[in-house]
Fold this protein.
Amino acid sequence: MNQARMHSRFEHSLLQSLLVIDTATLWYQMLRGLFYAPSRLVPTCTAAPWQLISQAQLSDEVPRISDIWRNDYQWSLPVTFLAETQPPTALQWARRRGPGLNHAQLHSLFRKRQIKLFLPATAQVKSISERAQLPEGSQLLFPTQATAGQPASRSTSLSQPDLTTKAALALAELLRQSVLHKDDELLVINKPAGLAVQGGPGVKLSLDKIMGSALSFGSLEQPRLVHRLDRDASGCLVIARTADSAAWLSQAFAQHAIAASSPDAVYTGATVQRVYLAMVEKSEHLALNPQGVIKDPLMGPGGSLQLATTLYRVLHSNDDVALMQLTPKTGRKHQLRIHCARALSAPILGDARYGMTRNDVQRKVLADLNTFNSQVDRATLRSDQAVDSTDMPVAHAEADHTTADMRNDLESCGALSVMPLQLHCQTVCLRKPRQQAIGVTSEPSHSMQALMRLFGWRTT
């Protein structure tokens, strides 16, 4: 009797355990379907101007999504990219479709692991590094607290405590006067030599901090960087005015960077071509080979070698210095500076990193330049009519005495270098399928103009 009773109790306990397990499994499946159903987490609503899905829109589309992701985060649009291009990194997508935060703010959020990634295939939300490539259909989640006020605040302000107000106001006006081309999609400016494109240690003023206030021109969207120029270089810099234009411009510059690595690849998207002027030390190699192609690989991230190609041509030269035209076919970091210094043994004047700015040649050139500048007022250098108008295509930027005064103010605040690198992006040409090409030309920096006048050189 007792044995039968114990057996009955065991069966009863087993049935209860199985029932509890089945109930827990059922609840888990129900909750997973309600909270994390991938089909419900990819809204089809129209995005806000800065390409974020707002809380209200997300709530309407996904009413049962977990409150922690719905209330505390804003969602980007799902990642998309052309089949023939590489997937964007998290940082690239945050710039294109994010809330318009500047370079330093995005780096800070990524470093603190506050930007999350949603993967619809596995219904997971996880942390993401800025360099990680994003799969198609995934979405970035930005903390609401960090994106509050965007784009109204434009992530920049002339009243920021870390900016010198006088220099910030002067730089904003200088940037507005430096616009060479403006349409609904993009701007092209003649970046002053010495102005950092992005903020960093020791940088008081940078373009990404000030362009929201200086270059919005009434637009509701935040201007966005799509490529960079070295701090001490000058010339044409392209800025996107919308998230959509930032996407295709970024693709164009990315394709330019890898074009020579895949010469047989078929690419049907937008393209970009840039032409530079550089004042270099004359070398025996240049004397024997005034025109050619450089194909020396450069060190890339992680120590990998990356193919880099540059076309060069000597325009003018004397015993010490040469004026060169450089056309990069790839877009590697410091590509032109390294190719000139190492492949041609002709470092660019003023390049303290890859050249020797205190050698006899550069000391002599800078002494001659200082003597020339002491004899010619800077404002006169801008508007002097003695130079033939065919000397170089003169943009309307930096063309009056007011701009010269601004530049002096900026130099005194340390925002612009007094003796910039003699590297200038003279021309940029953008081609978008089925649309007319956009070609923009800028005038060289003041020091390069002074050297060209000193040596009696002209560009054609």
In short: The chain has 15 helices and 17 strands. The CA atoms of residues 53 and 75 lie 5 Å apart.
